[in-house]
Amino acid sequence: MGDFMRQRSKRQEDNGLGSVLDVLLANARLVLGVTGAAVLAIATLAVKRLIDRATSPRDEGDPKAEQKTLEESWQDLALIKAAPKPTKKQRREDLSEPLLCPARPPAPEPRVCSAPPEPPRVESIPPRCLTLQEKLLSHYSSRLAVPEVEASLAPQLARSICTQLQRFLRSKCPELPFGNLFLSGALLDGLGALAADHIHIMLPVVLDTALWSLIPGEDTVVRNPQYWMIKRTDLEYFPRGCSPWDRFIVGRYLSSNVLNETLHKLLVASINWPAIGSLLGSIIHPVVASQELKLEVKHDQVEFCITLFPVVEMEDKVLLAAPPEGLVENLWLESFYKAEVSKVKELDAGDAGARQHCLRILNGICKSHPTLHKLSGSPMTHIILHLSATSSDWAEESLAERFQEVLEELVGYLEQGVLPSYFNHKINLFCQLVEEEIDEMGFMLYRAITEPELLLKEK
Questions:
Q1: For residue 2, what pLDDT is reported?
Q2: Lower CB count within 10 Å: N or C terminus of the chain?
């Protein structure tokens, strides 16, 4: 009776364990695949045998039985080792199914059927990547071309204003020998960019060279070779009043400040600009708050500014009444603009070069860029002139190479904080920049050396 109960209890345990194993094996193929299921089956069989041997009564002292048990254990272990290993693909099969779920019949083997032919694909042609050369030429033609109406109407209005201003000065100040006023600026000289937004009117101040002499910039109070002083000479023999410009003397020097202040009063209070504007179909009014002699002109088709510059041409120097900011008076700024334009055009004419194209692109980029706007104008022109001394190939086909070379040269000058003038190496064209501005410009242009397209993006 006791043996029967032990055997019945053993059968119940076997049945319970068997049902669990059956469910496990039923799910094995779904979860692990065919090979994985085989491995699990063999391993389960070996475990089941070990359990059977562990729970079955052992024949104590029977060496043959012990030997048989040991052999069966090694056989089970051999079965496990000999089982095929699942491949990587089988190991990575989806394990999202629950491990224990009702057994499902094995899925039928998938039938291989020919897929319907796919419709022919129409491959889209990828957009062609433009070279830097093509981008520069596109930028030059699209963004830097001044509208024809502005390009013709703005100079026409400026010449009419120049004529009216000339008549007024001759009638109001006949004792002052002003020369003939003339227009200047990038728009008229072919180096303009973006828009016809600014034109200069040059007002020549004619001096008697026997009564006036130039003091070099190094000897001035600011020790800057770009600024000059105009000294009244021989006052012992030719006292004050001998020159019509003696009324603008301060401490024996012709004061650019006093001359500008006098002209500013005339522009603001003495000239009937509403009448002149009505005659020209425009609205003209002087900028009262500006230290410069500036006019704003508004027409139905164009708006621009005019700046009046008294200019002295003496001893092969061109000096503008544009003193530096601060308390320093009497200083005249040496201008190289006329020489710059003449030299660039001369070089281009000699080798059919694209210096003017390159200069217009660079000036347009700098003028519209919040960080680089102070590099527009003379600094860019002088860099191109410096580079022309070492780079001879300025053909239009080499525009991209020269453009990148200009950027590299500019970064080098910014690192030194010095850009020497092409016409006078003592003059540093960066002297008006502060350290923070130089750092910001250098960082921007250093990036642009490897990615020039950054400068051609819309602002």
A1: 45
A2: N
Residue-range domain boundaries for the chain: 148-207+260-334, 338-455
Low-confidence ranges of the chain (pLDDT < 70): 1-129, 139-145, 192-195, 327, 458-459
- Residues 338-455, CATH architecture: Orthogonal Bundle (1.10)
Query: Contacts for 10-15 with beta carbons within 8 Å, 24 or more apart?
Result: 10/55, 10/56, 13/55, 14/52
pLDDT in tens, 374-413: 998 899 999 999 999 998 899 989 998 999 999 999 999 9
pLDDT in tens, 84-122: 444 433 443 343 444 344 444 455 454 544 555 555 555
pLDDT at site 419: 96
Instruction: Tell me what pLDDT residue 232 has.
Output: 96
What pLDDT was estimated at residue 132? 80
Domain 148-207+260-334, what architecture?
2-Layer Sandwich (3.30)
The pLDDT of residue 305: 94
